[in-house]
């Protein structure tokens, strides 16, 4: 199943850090890539691509200004859309249904106010508690539930550096 995150409404400067963290979290939790809509920001794309070069994997970052075309073409090609929102149905009540469908998933997170149309077009509107939280936290919890902790055992191909887990020190090996 392909997993892609759509980060909506990115604003240059203001969202730089959080959008980068959305991308890094998506990558570490096994997504194939992130599509960033809103203001085009090559800086965020470059810094995430630099992490991919060093830590491996095939993660992509794409910049697309029109989110609606992204969602329409995803649905049109048979995929499903999971919109993460505090107003949606509780994660525990829908996760089995989402997990049991083999279809590719576009996981949508917002930044500023999310247009009503997104709620209407989404296959599922899912809440990670009904309290306002960070999109990064919502994404991490959703992906962990979807994949049942598999992210802890993933390997990233062609990595140049790799962290060796340690109880007391920073251990890193260079592979290339
Ligand atoms: C800082 S919030 C801004 C939400 C915005 N005020 C709105 O009306 O949509 C940014 C994003 O975090 C995610 N988010 C925030 N709280 C959430 C929650 N409890 N469950 C799931 N996603 C959440 C949503 O994707 C949201 O668009």
From TrEMBL:
Binding site for S-adenosyl-L-methionine: 84, 110-114
Keywords: Cytoplasm, Methyltransferase, S-adenosyl-L-methionine, Transferase, tRNA processing
Nuclease as UniProt keyword: no
Highest taxon above the source species: Archaea
Compartments, as annotated in UniProt: Cytoplasm
EC number(s) recorded for this UniProt protein: 2.1.1.206
InterPro entries (alphabetical): Alpha/beta_knot_MTases, tRNA_m1G_MTases_N, tRNA_mtfrase_aTrm56
GO cellular component, one term: cytoplasm
Major subcellular site: cytoplasm
One term of GO molecular function: tRNA (cytidine(56)-2'-O)-methyltransferase activity
Pfam families referenced in this protein's UniProt entry, alphabetically: Trm56
Swiss-Prot/TrEMBL catalytic activity: cytidine(56) in tRNA + S-adenosyl-L-methionine = 2'-O-methylcytidine(56) in tRNA + S-adenosyl-L-homocysteine + H(+)
One GO term (biological process): tRNA nucleoside ribose methylation
Similarity field: Belongs to the aTrm56 family.
Oligomeric and partner information: Homodimer.
Role: Specifically catalyzes the AdoMet-dependent 2'-O-ribose methylation of cytidine at position 56 in tRNAs.
The protein, known as: tRNA (cytidine(56)-2'-O)-methyltransferase
Organism of this sequence: Candidatus Terraquivivens tikiterensis
């Amino acid at each position: 199943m392909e997993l892609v995150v759509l980060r909506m409404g990115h604003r240059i400067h203001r969202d730089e850090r959080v959008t980068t963290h959305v991308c890094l979290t998506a990558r570490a939790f096994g997504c194939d890539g992130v599509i960033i809509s809103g203001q085009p920001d090559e800086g965020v794309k470059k810094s995430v691509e630099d992490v991919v070069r060093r830590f491996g994997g095939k993660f992509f970052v794409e910049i697309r200004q029109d989110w609606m075309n992204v969602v329409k073409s995803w649905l049109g090609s048979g995929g499903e859309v999971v919109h993460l929102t505090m107003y949606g149905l509780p994660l525990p009540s829908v996760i089995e249904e989402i997990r049991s469908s083999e279809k590719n998933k576009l996981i949508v997170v917002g930044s500023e106010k999310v247009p009503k149309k997104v709620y209407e077009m989404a296959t599922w509107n899912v809440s990670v508690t009904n309290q306002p939280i960070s999109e990064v936290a919502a994404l991490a919890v959703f992906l962990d539930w979807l994949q049942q902790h598999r992210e802890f055992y993933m390997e990233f191909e062609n990595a140049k550096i790799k962290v060796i887990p340690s109880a007391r020190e920073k251990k890193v090996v260079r592979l290339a």
